[in-house]
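JOB MANIFEST
job_type = single_chain_structure
chain_count = 1
residues = 138
[input]
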Amino acid sequence: MEAKESSGGKLASWVDAIIQSNGEYLENPLIIHEKMDLLSKTSAFLDAFHGLIKFSTTPVPFITTQMGRTITFAWILFLPFVLISDRKSNLWEATAMVFLITYGFAGLTLAEVEMHDPLGHDQNDIETDRYTKVRELI
């Protein structure tokens, strides 16, 4: 996790340095309130980045995850009995509804597993390292 924090910090300090030395890059240097506005947006970016780091490094208690999956499983397990006991729906409607709802809840559970660590190094994670390499290109 330290590499992620340092990459966000490096990007923010680089942007800060560019804002401070804007006279070298711009034909008309920034006015002080424009400079302060850009610096406050850089600070907001860094606060949000550290919030994401804090969120991704805070462990989710196992019991919370396990209870969520158990409740989802129980709900999906007893859903057919509730739909069949309802005399208004026929068997095919109940079967289709159970399939669609089960598919949806199973998909949400798998999406939760995949998004558990959004700042990791998996294929579907946010690429924080790629965004910090913009500094090297410029």
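[summary]
Residues 61-115 form one domain.
The chain has six helices and no strands.
exit_status = 0
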